[in-house]
Amino acid sequence: MKQVLVLLTILAMTVFLTGCGDQVTVGKTFIGGTEGLKTSFLPGNPPDKTTDGGTGGFSIVMKLENVGENTIPATEGYVQIWGLDPGTYSSNIPDFKKYFNQQSGFGTDLKGAVKNFDGTVLNGGTATVEFGNLKYLPAIQGDLQQKIWANVCYKYKTRMATQLCVKGTTEQALNNKDICEVEGEKNPQNSGGPISIASLKESYAGNGKMGLTLTLKHVGSGDNFFKDDKLECNDVESNTDRGKVWIGFKPVLVGGQNVPVTCQGMDGTSTKNGYVGGYVRLFKDGSGKETTTLYCTVDVSSSKTVVEVPLEAQLGYTYLQHITSDLTIRHIGTG
User: Fold this and answer.
1) CB half-sphere exposure, 280, CA atoms < 13 A
2) At the top level of CATH, which class does the domain 37-154+322-330 belong to?
3) 157-319 maps to which CATH number?
4) Are strands 306-330 and 49-51 parallel, antiparallel or unpaired?
């Protein structure tokens, strides 16, 4: 009995000390993840085999699952089939290209996944895009194989949240570490999406300013990404929009004032849904993934104390990914 009481006392002290400690565990802001859309073909659509001479009909149906956390309007995506000639396969769809809003039953948008207040997750929406009533019209002498390459191009956004340590004077920045520390990694949290802010480091920049060094990275498995000012995924080297991402920040509330985040090296300046920013280009690193570093500052001279303040950012881009399937065309003899 005495041993049980001792054990209970130790457990109670552990809970008390854990609750009174300096470390505070905060739940994840977002679900996270490295994908926007997850794509696949419906089983049997396309089939493995069809026949020549217009004797066998089939469909190509791409399934789209929004596993990221950004809702895609039906006007901001399309599926295009490469590898097959539309006329050869009796298709009346120009260029084998179909926008989401041209698909019957697609709806007005494809909802992103949502994290509820209690930590549970509401899955994102699912839809299909169909190319139906296809037939291989020519008569051939023997079997042949063709590759179906299905591109999906869509606009997407990634949101980021973290906290900055604000110290308005040099003395506070260099010496006072009781509440927070200026120098170091701020561990940004990203919503689910194929491009994210992988690192955000804060430093004291002098003259009442805090410096922010951000690393943007392509973390998805798609083919490429482009400026989000138009819905087009022309993945050729001559396309100067290739590899560009829009990044914007909400003003930081410091000392009762909304202070803008000022960045170097941005292409243009624009405001989108309360975020102010511009375009930056990502380049492939040694691992083959596209990345870039951005340096920004926040003027915190209006603060005369030591506080932590939230920082919010948003990335915008047009994303390209694809899936493939092999199709065998069988010759049907005429006798």
Assistant:
1) 25
2) mainly beta
3) 2.60.40
4) parallel
pLDDT the model gives residue 4: 40
Sign of CA dihedral 195, 200, 300, 266: negative
Which pLDDT score is estimated for 14?
38
| Rounded percentage of the chain residues whose pLDDT exceeds 70 | 88
Q: Specify the pLDDT at position 178.
A: 73
CA-CA distance, 158 to 321, in Å (whole number)?
17
Which two structure tokens, joined as six digits, stand for 178?
């009781």
Ordered by start, the domain boundaries in the chain are 37-154+322-330, 157-319
At residue 3, does pLDDT exceed 90? no
Task: Name the average pLDDT for the chain.
Answer: 90
Sort 160 into a burial class: Cβ within 10 Å, 0-12 / 13-18 / 19+. buried
Which residues, 6 or more positions from 287, have their beta carbon under 8 angstroms from its beta carbon?
A: none
